[in-house]
């Protein structure tokens, strides 16, 4: 360890290049700690491992793919080797409660992030295991107030150690006006039932059938893809074919271009299973906001905290098709209103979605500030 610099272990069961929201979270939290002047060791698993990668103050120890129990065993072994080699941390940050399991043998303050559904769904033995793991924490970081409420509804005794801390964004340069003659709507997400993408497709199809010109792209893949494709096919019966595309997974460059040229972001998520299956934050929503794109989101879960209805986007009941359709029609027809909402969305995102602040809140009260001349925490991470 560099003299005077504290060390943080970040533990996760996933990592890039594999895709997913937790993978993004792991990478950004590690970078946030490094910017704050800390040495960071990430213990994780990905399809690219096993490998050891050193990038400045961040060391990635990737144990590679294995069975679930095999991954846990490899993580414990990797951490034990680091511990024996003198690379002992001041705190351990597990990026999910399950990722905290292999960290339990190491006597350091434990921070655990909860994202939403993974604390809402466990029952029986899984719930008892989750309760036992979280009872060993020094701090629980919920990525939204909705996630904190869900967590404490199940484990109220943990209220004194649970804090809500929004995720961050990487702030891109101010984008130019899209200049699209036909408004472009995008949805970017993993296609699962709670994202409610099939309902979004039907709302756009109904608007197009009513004479509103719209181009719509659904970007992502997942288990709900058949239902979304069925909705696209049904829409082709209502309106002229075309105008709605399913792109599947796209690379970073194409995704960035899609965000730069979009006029509206559509994400009418809903909660399922009595609220247990919910969207905890909505990284893609935050990414759209910081681009200056007005978002239409559902009332359930974290995204409804990010978007202020009528100020920087629209909040609808995702279970009411007419509300989604009306919101899409309103923004598609009114470019001036879209522009105003988008400007407000970017300003709000830049001010409120900060990875460095997230990391600071995670460590607050857990370990003293790092000694030495660590650089100041940034309030915005720019591209």
Secondary-structure map with pairings?
Layout: E1 7-11, H1 21-35, E2 39-44, E3 51-55, E4 58-62, H2 68-84, E5 91-94, E6 110-114, H3 117-120, H4 125-134, E7 139-142, H5 145-154, E8 162-164, E9 170-171, E10 184-188, H6 197-209, E11 215-219, H7 225-238, E12 244-248, H8 252-260, E13 264-267, H9 283-290, E14 295-298, H10 303-306, E15 313-316, H11 321-333, H12 335-352, H13 355-363, E16 381-382
Parallel strand pairs: 1-2, 1-5, 2-4, 5-6, 6-7, 7-8, 9-16, 10-11, 10-13, 11-12, 13-14, 14-15
Antiparallel strand pairs: 3-4
Helix pairs in contact: 1-13, 6-7, 6-11, 9-12
Describe the structure concisely for a colleague:
The chain is an alpha/beta fold and 383 residues long.
Structural notes for this entry:
Strand 7, helix 5 (145-154) and strand 8 form a beta-alpha-beta unit. The two termini are 28 Å apart. The chain folds into two domains: 7-168 and 354-382, Glycogen Phosphorylase B (Rossmann fold, 3-Layer(aba) Sandwich), CATH 3.40.50.2000; 172-351, Glycogen Phosphorylase B (Rossmann fold), CATH 3.40.50. Mean pLDDT is 93; it is low at 370-379. It is built from 13 helices and 16 strands. Helices cover 38% and strands 18% of the residues. It has 383 residues and is an alpha/beta fold. Helix 6 runs parallel beside helix 7 and helix 9 (283-290) packs across helix 12. The chain has helices spanning 21-35, 68-84, 117-120, 125-134, 145-154, 197-209, 225-238, 252-260, 283-290, 303-306, 321-333, 335-352, 355-363, and strands at residues 7-11, 39-44, 51-55, 58-62, 91-94, 110-114, 139-142, 162-164, 170-171, 184-188, 215-219, 244-248, 264-267, 295-298, 313-316, 381-382. The strands form three sheets. The chain has an eight-stranded mixed β-sheet with strand order 3-4-2-1-5-6-7-8, sandwiched between helices. A six-stranded parallel β-sheet has the order 12-11-10-13-14-15, with helices on both faces.
